[in-house]
Amino acid sequence: MHCLFVFALIAAATADVIYKGPCPNIQPKADFDFSAYQGTWYEMARYPHAGEEGVKGKCTLIEYYMFGNNSGRVKKSHVVDNIQKYVEGNLMLAGPATMMTTLTFGGVSKNAYITVLDTDYSNYAIAYSCRYFPDGNKHQVRSWIMSRTTTLDENSRAMVDSYLNDSRILDTNKYMGNDYSPAACQASLVKSITDLQPQYY
User: Where is the Lipocalin/cytosolic fatty-acid binding domain (predicted)?
Assistant: First the structure.
């Protein structure tokens, strides 16, 4: 059985996760309630991607806030080399348990679609994103395991492990753990990300 707590101990590959063929069919979280999902999430583990600077991005926070009309705001931040970097943007519900985020980098906007696969709203969440490249007939996958705090309790770990073990589209070996130690989260400077990063979700 795969265990979530080992992610932080595994030296995961740093390359983006890419497979042949189109994006697979997925099952979004049934009866998704965005008002319950909004708020702050801590990224426990993720598929590596350039948007979080490979393995460098630590102490990652994602904040979702809804305006009440199926739209809202999103802010993402992480710490790299004692600098807290952040990007903000808009979001809107774009389908069952799916959010379209529009992040702005120095005046240039980038859209991305993120689907919540599973969550209990108050403890854990598993999110997924897939982008298809028809020219090369391949798709790029991203996934995040998140918590309402900087740790996951035993019951939440069991729920996440159970979902991952049953999943046919997620590979536990691709996840890399985050770091919320005081040293990793220490930041002497806060800086907005202004350079366009096309792979930042």
Answer: 38-169
Within a domain: 197: no
Which residue positions in the chain have pLDDT lower than 50?
Answer: 1-2, 5-6, 8-13, 198-201
pTM: 0.88
State phi, psi for 8 to the nearest 5 degrees.
-70, -15
Which of 59, 44, 47 lies closest to 13, judged by CA? 47
Buried b (16+ CB within 10 A) or exposed e, 22-40: ebeebeebeebebeebbee
- Whether residue 16 lies inside any domain: the answer is yes
Q: Are the C-beta atoms of 42 and 148 separated by less than 8 Å?
A: yes
Residue 156 domain boundaries? 4-192
